[in-house]
Design goal:
- The complex is a heterodimer of chains A (144) and B (651).
- Chain A has one domain: Ubiquitin-like (UB roll).
- Chain A has 3 helices and 5 strands; from the N terminus they run E-E-H-H-H-E-E-E.
- Chain B has a domain of 344 residues: HUPs (Rossmann fold), CATH 3.40.50.620.
- Chain B is 43% helix and 8% strand.
- Chain B is built from 22 helices and 13 strands.
- At the A-B interface, strand 4 and strand 5 of A face helix 4, helix 10 and helix 11 of B.
- Chain B: Belongs to the CTU2/NCS2 family.
- Chain B: This is Cytoplasmic tRNA 2-thiolation protein 2.
- Chain B: Pathway: tRNA modification; 5-methoxycarbonylmethyl-2-thiouridine-tRNA biosynthesis.
Chain lengths: 144, 651
């Protein structure tokens, strides 16, 4: 389904260093998702663990009974929203190994790159995602 | 947010280091390589020393003729100048492999000119002849039901081939963790004589001895190495009926044992392969985590050797070229260079172990205070071994050899010998004078042996062991070490419980504190199941070397009344320990006297005046003992002899 620039963002995700082990089988290291363009908390419901990963439909907000007025009030999708979305839709186990204890950011020791650049240079959680962005999560905990 | 510029080339920055330093991709990768170069140069210097025979005596090759003439047969030259690299498949060792291959640039394995110094100007002069990439397969330790038992050796081999393989001078050396139990030592292996936590004939649970006996090398009932390895690790795990509260402690023990045995196996393999250097891919982050967790488990005494970025552990130079590079930089480097790594078996939680908790703690701190890792590392780098003189420069430990040759400093001795020009000569001189060496083997110590404090190794981890860690632990815990065959304070010479093969060996007197704690703490969870537990082969070998060393030192100790400066005797230790305890006790008594005036420590009346007078007398006596103790450490003749080794002969 072609993503609308107004309602969804086409985001490429990459997981490495062991973070892919937290995903549902087949634990694809590289995935493409359609993220809601607005950071509507109503869209952060958790999928059932038994269901396969599905692309978020453009009209999910309406399907979940969320009024269009609340969707308009939500800000643009940022990294904070993306991390929550990944936790709720892609991580199937041990989410505390991905998300920080405060529930917002990622766990210390996970390197995050946005378009091959350190997210600390882009504003970290406040970075507003653009259509076509590539976000990479690499765990540095294993050393070796 | 305006884009930040690279601090070096002013192009657009893509990596932020320590909140203040932004770098572009290429400069970040180059910085990792440049930071590794100084230690890689030491590896080259050690390889040059090896190729020119300077290390022969140290390693028992005995090729003094080749040293004096500078000539070596092509066959012997092929085995010299090799470097070992520990490779786990993770990002740090993967980055190290890439950097080492680029900076050391060994010749192809099939090159016919590998034995010649120069290939008619077509190649750079050779110093490092090959890199042995050592991979230790520990899949036997992972339960098959958790899906972690797959042998990843072939995956690692593919990665080494991707880096260039034999054509790039890389020699893949796969070994198994159970090889620790391979190669029956002469006289058989050590086996535990009784269950941990049990003393033969005693039902007391408050006493602990760790005794071992030698099994016959012809004993057909000896378990296989794999069985021995699994049993050793299962010994440290509690029974299934034990409470869950013991699991974090179990995980700590397993991690500690795994790390100690792995490091020893790597050093041993490097020595067996004839390598002058062992490269370890430990990052700054990993090193700082390990420093704190090692301190937490009582292993701080050996950190100056275990955690040093460049130190000779006996005959192998152990280098950590990535010690100044953080885990984040390494992960970025691996990704930018497109390097393939092994997938980890699992994404580790802390598991409650000391190592895991320390990792989470340090990384959390680093997120808020970016200089945490570097600060911890720098502070740890200032630690030294307690025994003064126990670590010396490589050249100082080779002085007995040098004194048999012509006089002069090391700069003169190595001049023109490297075969690769002045830079090579300087490299060799740098390694001889700037790198430190810890060794305990007789025959390789300083000629002025009386001025050298020898720290003997722990049989299990092979690193410096505190003297009588068990006795020290006994003083601070409820647990007693049980009866001994000696009277207190008479010194090791009277110890009847340590002896040659066929008789019982008191391991608890030789183990360092963390290794001792491994067994003693496991005793609370696993009693009586460990009789006949086979210990790794190197344990028996190190025990035998220690016993030989102590027997050789006994006449010296007897002549000097147990006060030999070359060996830290039990007598001196007990005096020192007793003074410490007295000082602590005196402090307590003073506090009690101050808190309750009129009541003396012995409960008699007439109080603090009497107590203060006797206290003052004890203090004076303690000071006098301390002064005598301190005076024995200074020996003018020994110092003169040491200085004399550097002086030119009078013409």
């Amino acid at each position: 389904m072609a993503s609308s620039s107004k309602q969804t963002l086409d985001i490429k995700l990459e997981f490495g260093g062991g973070t892919e082990l937290l995903l549902a089988p087949p634990r694809n290291k590289k995935q493409r998702i359609s993220l809601p363009a607005r950071a509507d908390p109503a869209t952060l419901h958790k999928t059932l663990r038994q269901q396969p990963v599905v692309t978020m439909p453009a009209d999910e907000g309406a399907a979940n009974g969320v009024s269009s007025s609340s969707a308009k009030e939500a800000g643009p999708a940022d990294m904070r929203f993306l991390v929550q979305w990944i936790r709720n839709h892609l991580i199937v186990e041990r989410e505390e190994l991905f998300v920080n204890t405060d529930g917002e950011g990622v766990r210390p020791g996970i390197l995050v790159l946005i378009n091959d650049a350190d997210w600390e240079l882009e504003g970290e959680l406040d970075y507003e995602l653009q259509d076509g962005d590539e976000v990479c999560f690499i765990s540095t905990l294993h050393g070796g | 947010m305006p884009p930040r510029k690279c601090y070096r080339c002013s192009s657009r920055a893509t990596l932020l280091l320590r909140k203040t330093l932004a770098s572009c991709s290429e400069c970040a990768c180059k910085a990792v390589e440049v930071r590794s170069k100084p230690l890689m140069e030491l590896a080259r210097g050690a390889a040059l020393l090896d190729r020119n025979g300077f290390l022969d005596e140290m390693r028992g090759r005995g090729s003094s003729s080749s040293e004096t003439t500078g000539e070596s047969s092509s066959q012997s030259q092929d085995s010299r100048g090799a470097v070992a690299l520990a490779f786990s498949g993770g990002p740090s060792s993967r980055a190290l492999l890439h950097i080492a291959r680029r900076l050391l640039n060994p010749p192809p394995a099939s090159s016919a000119s590998s034995s010649s110094e120069k290939d008619k100007g077509k190649r750079k002069p050779v110093d490092v002849t090959r890199i042995h990439v050592i991979y230790v397969d520990d899949s036997a330790l992972y339960p098959s039901d958790e899906g972690g038992a797959r042998d990843l050796t072939e995956d690692v081999r593919a990665i080494v081939e991707e880096e260039g393989g034999a054509a790039a001078g890389l020699d893949f050396v796969p070994i198994k963790f159970e090889d620790l139990f391979q190669g029956q030592e002469e006289g058989g292996q050590l086996v535990l004589a009784a269950g941990l936590g049990e003393e033969a004939g005693s039902t007391s649970t408050s006493t602990s001895r760790i005794r071992a006996t030698r099994s016959s090398s012809n004993d057909l009932s000896s378990p296989s190495p794999l069985t021995s390895l699994r049993r050793l690790f299962s010994t440290l795990s509690p029974h299934s009926t034990s409470p869950r509260s013991l699991q974090p402690a179990t995980r700590t023990r397993l991690e500690t044992l795994h790390h100690s045995l792995l490091q020893h196996l790597l050093r041993h393999t490097a020595a067996v392969l004839g390598c002058s250097t062992l490269l370890l891919g430990e990052s700054a982050t990993r090193s700082s985590i390990r420093l704190l967790s090692t301190l937490s488990t009582g292993g701080g005494h050996k950190w100056p050797v275990e955690g040093s970025e460049a130190i000779w552990v006996d005959e192998v130079l152990v280098l950590r070229p990535l010690r100044e590079t953080g885990g984040k930089e390494i992960a970025y480097y691996v990704r930018e260079r497109g390097l393939t790594c092994l997938e980890p078996r699992s994404l580790l939680g802390s598991g409650g172990s000391i190592g895991g908790l320390t990792r989470d703690f340090l990384l959390s701190l680093e997120a808020g205070v970016p200089s945490t890792v570097s600060t911890v590392g720098r502070t740890g780098g200032k630690l030294v071994l307690k025994e003064e003189g126990s670590v010396q420069s490589l050249g100082e430990t080779m002085i007995p050899y040098a004194s048999s040759q012509q006089g002069g400093g090391w700069d003169e001795r190595v001049a023109g010998r490297s075969g690769v020009g002045q830079k090579g000569d300087r490299l060799m001189a740098t390694v001889l004078t700037q790198t430190q060496r810890w060794t305990w083997r007789a025959g390789s110590a300083n000629a002025n042996a009386n001025s050298t404090r020898v720290v003997l190794p722990c049989p299990l981890c092979g690193l410096p062991a505190q003297q009588e860690a068990g006795r020290w632990r006994e003083k601070i815990t409820m647990r007693r070490m049980g009866t001994r065959g000696e009277e207190a304070g008479t010194g090791k010479a009277d110890t009847a419980s340590t002896d040659a093969r066929g008789e019982t060996v008191e391991l608890d007197e030789m183990l360092c504190y963390p290794c001792l704690s491994l067994f003693l703490d496991a005793a609370t969870a696993n009693k009586g199941d460990n009789a006949g537990l086979v210990l790794p082969g190197h344990v028996g070998r190190i025990v035998e070397e220690r016993l030989c060393y102590e027997r050789a030192e006994q006449p010296t100790m007897a002549t000097n009344g147990g006060g030999s400066k070359s060996v830290q005797t039990t007598g001196e230790d007990e005096v020192g320990d007793q003074l410490d305890l007295d000082a602590a006790a005196d402090g307590g008594r003073r506090q009690m006297a101050a808190a309750a005036p009129g009541v003396s420590a012995n409960g008699a009346g007439g109080g603090e005046h009497t107590e203060g007078h006797s206290q003052g007398a004890r203090d004076e006596e303690s000071v006098a003992i301390l002064r005598r103790h301190a005076t024995r450490r200074l020996d003018r003749s020994a110092m003169e002899g040491k200085i004399g080794g550097y002086l030119l002969e009078d013409e």
